[in-house]
TrEMBL record:
Ranges where the ABC transmembrane type-1 domain occurs: 12-293
Membrane topology type: Multi-pass membrane protein
The ABC transporter domain, residue ranges: 324-548
Pfam family, one: ABC_membrane
Location of this chain's protein in the cell: Cell membrane
Spans traversing the lipid bilayer: 12-36, 48-68, 138-165, 238-257
GO molecular function: ATP binding
SUPFAM superfamilies: ABC transporter transmembrane region (SSF90123), P-loop containing nucleoside triphosphate hydrolases (SSF52540)
UniProt protein name: ABC transporter ATP-binding protein/permease
PANTHER family referenced in this protein's UniProt entry, alphabetically: ATP-BINDING CASSETTE SUB-FAMILY B, ATP-BINDING CASSETTE SUB-FAMILY B MEMBER 6
Protein keywords: ATP-binding, Membrane, Nucleotide-binding, Transmembrane, Transmembrane helix
Length: 548
């Protein structure tokens, strides 16, 4: 949190000064109120009129100071909140696949929406109040010290006692705020499951069951919010009750000073200052607890959970000129052995087809070769460099993926191919044509700038796959990973897509259960996973044996 606020150090100092402006206004208002009450003791109309003019001037000055204070604060708040959003988004995008997959995607959406809204609505509101009330407390106690040192010492001692009482509420406040965040995440996941499976729910007439489940989730969330609000409000009430006790004692003490000849203006001003001390310290401490709970939310959505100490420092670039070599590879997933002491090589520019029964580990092997999994035993090297020493982002710049289920953004065909990178439009168009999208683009009114519906609902399966192929072409990738890229296509489209994939000038590592006669044989090698081992075959020999 400290680094967030000090990122713009000079503007943060400016922000604190802006929060102190209302402290000056509050002190002047207290003084004027004391003078108005003290005018009763003076008893002259001339004095009363003079004080009324002073009051009017202070009121106008206060309005001006409020506007100035707000303008001084608002730009810092806006830019800092934008930083929080970017940090939260950056944490998600830059987390490893292993770390990312520990949570549901909907929980990340909850982090980006609900948690940031909690932080936005709570943090700066509490920070302003903490600075303002802390400023009023310090200024009030200082002025009291000049007017009556004994009274000032008594107020300070009481405030210390109140501080330790409030401190006892801190851990519970933070815990409740974190629980609200967790309930928000669970609610987001429940709603996403309901909406994603709405068609199935309707077809099976089980909407009521899920409606009941959703209502239970909503009720739990609102109950947890209510518990947090009640607890924080109870803190405030307890502190106010204790503060009221001090105020009664202050009134008794100050009434004795009035009897000893102190002016009514001075006594009233001291009462106002005593209010400034106690009421602000009783309210600032619960606010400080809420501020800490907001800081916990900030850490949750922006700080990485990965323990970097267990990893080798990844500083090397991915450079693939000759071969990727796998030696004595062991890998298990959820307690099940997938690969055992297996070795093979991937040569640059060659086309490899992965074969094996369902669950044999074909998709797992792609994830190992693309650095998605790194908790394996053995070695994976590229031109002699250990995978564990290579920056993941460096490899990602050199590879592309084609999956059975292609994800498309609700955006133009152009942006779905370019993936928001600044390619020349001619290059995008060329990639689209090579991928066989020319017929599609001719039908669209806006051509390559045609908007797609959510996840490309207005495209056929073959058109969606061709967009993913265009992505690989425009990226000039060195390695293309394909995981059942044609399984959902008809025979004719499947053949065309497979032929396009094999014509690309890159290394291809593909999984496919389908055999397209005259095309599938064009793979250079077949890697068959059987009994936790990987056996390599020349493609022609493999398919000849299968045919026999």
């Amino acid at each position: 949190m400290k680094e967030l606020l000090l990122k713009r150090k000079s503007r943060f100092i400016f922000y604190i000064l802006a929060c102190f402006i209302p402290v000056l206004d509050n002190t002047l208002v207290n003084l004027v109120m004391s003078m108005i009450i003290g005018s009763i003791q003076v008893g002259t109309m001339e004095n009363f009129i003079r004080i009324c003019f002073i009051s009017l001037g202070v009121t106008v000055l206060g309005a001006v100071m409020y506007i100035v204070s707000r303008f001084m604060r608002i730009s810092f708040m806006r830019d800092t909140l934008l930083d929080v959003r970017l940090l939260a988004f950056d944490k998600i995008l830059n987390s490893s696949y292993k770390e990312f997959s520990k949570k549901s995607k909907d929980s990340y959406i909850s982090n980006l929406i609900n948690d940031i809204n909690i932080f936005e609505s709570n943090f700066f509101l509490q920070l302003i109040n903490v600075i303002f009330r802390g400023g009023v407390y310090v200024v009030s106690l200082t002025i009291i010290g000049f007017l009556d040192i004994k009274f000032a010492i008594g107020a300070f001692v009481i405030s210390i006692i109140l501080f330790f009482i409030s401190k006892s509420f801190e851990s519970k406040t933070v815990k409740l705020q974190e629980e609200v965040s967790e309930y928000n995440e669970n609610f987001a996941i429940e709603m996403s499951n309901t909406f994603n499976g709405l068609e199935i729910l309707k077809l099976n007439n089980i909407e009521d069951r899920f409606l009941s489940k959703a209502l239970k989730s909503i009720t739990g969330l609102e109950r947890k919010k209510f518990e947090f609000n009640i607890y924080t409000d109870s803190q405030r009430r307890i502190m106010e009750f204790l503060g009221f006790g001090f105020l009664i004692g202050s009134m008794v003490y100050l009434s004795t000073l009035l009897g000893k000849g102190m002016s009514l203006t001075k006594v009233t001003f001291m009462v106002q200052l005593a209010n400034g001390c106690i009421w602000n310290v009783t309210s600032i401490l619960p606010l400080f607890n809420q501020l800490k709970s907001s800081a916990k939310i900030y850490d949750k959505i922006t700080k990485s959970n990965e323990d970097d100490s267990v990893y080798i420092q990844k500083e090397k670039e991915f450079t693939f000129k000759n071969e990727i070599e796998v030696k004595n590879l062991y890998f298990e997933y959820e307690g099940k052995d997938i690969l055992k002491d297996t070795s093979f090589k991937i040569e640059k520019g060659k086309k490899y087809l992965l074969k094996g029964t369902s669950g044999a580990g074909k998709s797992t092997l792609i994830k190992l070769l693309s650095m998605i999994y790194d908790d394996y035993k053995g070695e994976i090297t590229v031109d002699g460099i250990d995978y564990r020493e290579i920056k993941e982002s460096s490899l990602n710049d050199k590879v592309s993926f084609i999956y059975q289920d292609v994800f498309l953004f609700e955006d133009t065909i152009y942006n779905n191919i370019a993936l928001y990178k600044s390619y020349d439009e001619g290059k995008i168009q060329e990639a689209a044509n090579k991928a066989g999208l020319d017929n599609l683009l001719q039908k669209k009114e806006n051509g390559i700038h045609e908007m797609l519906m959510e996840n490309g609902k207005n495209l056929s399966g073959g058109e969606r796959q061709r967009i993913s192929i265009a992505r690989a072409i425009v990226k000039d990738c060195e390695i293309l990973f394909v995981d059942e890229g044609t399984s959902s296509l008809d025979e004719e489209l499947g053949r065309k897509v497979e032929e396009t994939i094999l014509s690309l000038d890159c290394t291809v590592i593909a999984i496919s259960h389908r055999h397209y006669e005259g095309i599938t044989e064009k793979y250079d090698h077949v890697l068959e996973i059987k009994n936790n081992q990987i056996n390599e075959y020349n493609s022609n020999e493999y398919f000849m044996e299968v045919a026999i």
